[in-house]
């Protein structure tokens, strides 16, 4: 009996459902597809790329054309009453205007937007992991309460039979009946918690069917989840999307200073233009063509310290970006230490809970056997049952905490899949 019960407990913890369908990775993928945050992040990248291409056009020659048509109503002796001119022009900025700095700034902002998208994906992956493992834990909680009800029911039937035969007291039967009622109450609560977990699971992946009362997972918290290798803070900072994004924003702010300063530097433009127009006055209706090379120079002289104030404002953006980057790096130290501590602690608790569970299962089996042989009281059996369900739920909680701790450490370490 003891050996059978121990094997049964191990099978409950180690068995995986035969109706496996949804894997953790496939669930993550479905969450990515349904995530509005990821869609917005993709749009932010598209906007940044469009801005980068826009800045690049300032480095290229521009082609424009001016045209005009006139018609007069006062007749002049021998002259036509109309005239026109068409003047196309190609212009190229060869110095000034900060076009190169603006382009570099846009490139860094594009990189930052892409990294922000990766950071959103990291957060969504953690949310998906939490929802997935939560469903797995709630399934085990529900299975535990169902099994507990069965155990109490079996004991109740034995006590009831003994009471009818005069071998058990009324108080014994009432105590077992009260325990059975409490077990059924816990069973209802476990089913409700499971349904809440299912609703959140489906909502995260974009499923709105409220009649879907069950999901089939191919992985469980009782599976062997690899223990992550600890990563140094320096490596984390070199791969975390939020750290790299903050660094890209700092570079963008530095280029922004150059762009602001260039607006007050001399500008040199060179252009080539041509014209096709009528003679003035238009006495014969004939036209002529002409061409010209232009060189434009603009030198700011006095703007009431406008340049100094503008550059100072841009430099504050650099200071803010630098402080943000340093703050994120400081946060990484604390986050990594806390996540690693939670990971090692949850792993130790999981190992301890499994050992305690084997002891509680053996104690329950012995107490039940002893009661059937008349060598133990019903209180001894009830106490063994209470101890078993508490330790069993602790084991489920420990496994859930470990699974979440692994996901959280991967989040902190910045592992992007």
Number of strands: 4
Number of spatially distinct domains: 1
The helix-strand sequence is: HHHEEHHHHEEHH
Overall average pLDDT: 85
Largest sheet, order of strands side by side?
Answer: 1-2-3-4
How many alpha or pi helices? 9
- Distance N terminus to C terminus? 48 Å
Helix content: 55-70%
Percent in strands: 5-15%
Explain what this protein looks like in three dimensions.
There is one protein chain. The protein is 67% helix and 12% strand. The chain contains nine helices and four strands. It has a four-stranded antiparallel beta sheet with strand order 1-2-3-4, with no helix packed on it. A hairpin with an 8-residue loop joins strand 3 and strand 4. Helix 4 runs antiparallel to helix 5 (170-204). The two termini are 48 Å apart. Residues 1-20 have low confidence and may be disordered.
Brief description of this entry?
With 417 residues, this protein is of the alpha+beta class. It has a single domain, classed as Outer membrane efflux proteins (OEP).
Top keywords for this entry?
417 residues; alpha+beta; Outer membrane efflux proteins (OEP); 4-stranded antiparallel beta sheet; 12% strand; elongated; disordered N terminus
């Amino acid at each position: 009996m003891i050996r059978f019960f121990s094997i049964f407990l191990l099978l409950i913890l180690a068995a995986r459902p035969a109706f496996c369908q949804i894997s953790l990775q496939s669930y993550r993928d479905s969450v990515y597809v349904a995530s509005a945050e990821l869609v917005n992040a993709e749009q932010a990248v598209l906007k940044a790329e469009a801005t980068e291409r826009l800045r690049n056009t300032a480095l290229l020659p521009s082609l424009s054309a001016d045209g005009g048509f006139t018609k007069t109503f006062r007749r002049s002796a021998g002259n036509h009453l109309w005239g026109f001119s068409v003047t196309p022009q190609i212009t190229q900025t060869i110095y000034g205007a900060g076009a190169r700095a603006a382009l570099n700034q846009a490139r860094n902002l594009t990189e930052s937007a892409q990294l922000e998208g990766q950071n959103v994906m990291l957060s969504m992956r953690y949310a998906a992991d939490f929802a997935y493992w939560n469903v797995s834990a709630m399934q085990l909680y529900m299975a535990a309460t169902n099994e507990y009800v069965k155990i109490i029911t079996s004991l109740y039937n034995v006590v009831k039979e003994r009471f009818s035969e005069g071998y058990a007291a009324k108080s014994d039967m009432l105590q077992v009946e009260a325990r059975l009622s409490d077990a059924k109450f816990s069973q209802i609560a476990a089913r409700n918690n499971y349904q809440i977990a299912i609703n959140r699971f489906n909502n995260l992946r974009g499923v709105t069917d409220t009649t879907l009362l069950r999901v089939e997972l191919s992985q469980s918290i009782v599976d062997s989840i690899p223990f992550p290798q600890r990563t140094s803070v320096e490596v984390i900072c070199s791969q975390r999307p939020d750290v790299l994004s903050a660094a890209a924003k700092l570079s963008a702010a530095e280029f922004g200073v150059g762009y602001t300063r260039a607006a007050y530097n001399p500008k040199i433009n060179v252009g080539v233009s041509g014209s096709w127009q009528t003679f003035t006055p238009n006495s014969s209706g004939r036209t002529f063509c002409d061409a010209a090379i232009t060189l434009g120079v603009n030198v700011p002289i006095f703007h009431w310290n406008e340049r100094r104030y503008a550059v100072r404002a841009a430099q504050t953006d650099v200071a803010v970006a630098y402080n943000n980057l340093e703050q994120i790096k400081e946060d990484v130290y604390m986050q990594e230490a806390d996540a690693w501590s939670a990971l090692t602690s949850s792993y130790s608790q999981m190992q301890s809970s499994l050992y305690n569970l084997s002891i509680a299962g053996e104690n329950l089996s012995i107490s039940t056997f002893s009661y059937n042989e008349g060598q133990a009281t019903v209180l001894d059996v009830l106490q063994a049952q209470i101890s078993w369900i508490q330790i069993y739920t602790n084991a489920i909680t420990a496994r859930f905490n470990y699974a979440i701790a692994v996901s959280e450490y991967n989040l902190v370490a910045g592992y992007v899949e």
